[in-house]
């Protein structure tokens, strides 16, 4: 009997370990200085010095400047704008789109995103990780009042399908979601990725890679 109880306890312990998820990473990397105690990459402010303004941001009604090659602008409100978001696992973004503007394919390595359109019509989509059936694309024509979810880490985009400006608001499940704009990261890294590597990866000639690397990859964030 005691043996059964021990076995049961061991099984319970094992299953609880299986169910425990990876701790979320809140920065790309963290080299700790030897003289500071950090929580999720930030030093904590003493509570008696905290004020309401540490949880406050103003100006999210202001349209972002979409005068760039993409015709879009992301205005982020994360732990860099609101210190009080530290360790809370949530943030916000406003996205403005010029007519036919694009928020280009990108990922948030640390966050799921839920997006709603306040004005205009967007064509939105995301692509799954590699599966037996390839990378599956899920898209939606998306109008004022609609809500769409982009699962954590997956490549996604939004395109303003209309002749008028569009506005969307996104909530993200990280205080610091991070953004990897695919074209910028692949063709506009500093220094550039070897054209031999990219020519092989994309199955094109080095001239095509050199052409792409010569473009200006605007960051709309
Ligand atoms: C918007 O950005 C463009 C390009 O950087 C700049 O020329 C223009 O002055 C900006 N407009 C405003 C209102 O800030």
Automatic annotation (TrEMBL):
Keyword Secreted: yes
UniProt entry tagged with the keyword Manganese: yes
Signal peptide: 1-20
Annotated compartments: Secreted, Extracellular space, Apoplast
Family matches, as InterPro entries: Cupin_1 (IPR006045), Germin (IPR001929), Germin_Mn-BS (IPR019780), RmlC-like_jellyroll (IPR014710), RmlC_Cupin_sf (IPR011051)
Alphabetical UniProt keywords: Apoplast, Disulfide bond, Manganese, Metal-binding, Secreted, Signal
GO CC list: apoplast
Binding-site list for Mn(2+): 106, 108, 113, 156
Gene Ontology molecular-function annotations: manganese ion binding
Pfam families registered for this protein in UniProt: Cupin_1
Residue stretches making up the Cupin type-1 domain: 60-210
Binding site for oxalate: 103, 108, 113
Cystine pairings recorded for this chain: 30-44
Cross-referenced PANTHER family: GERMIN-LIKE PROTEIN SUBFAMILY 3 MEMBER 3
Family: Belongs to the germin family.
Name of the protein in its database record: Germin-like protein
Gene: LOC120106655
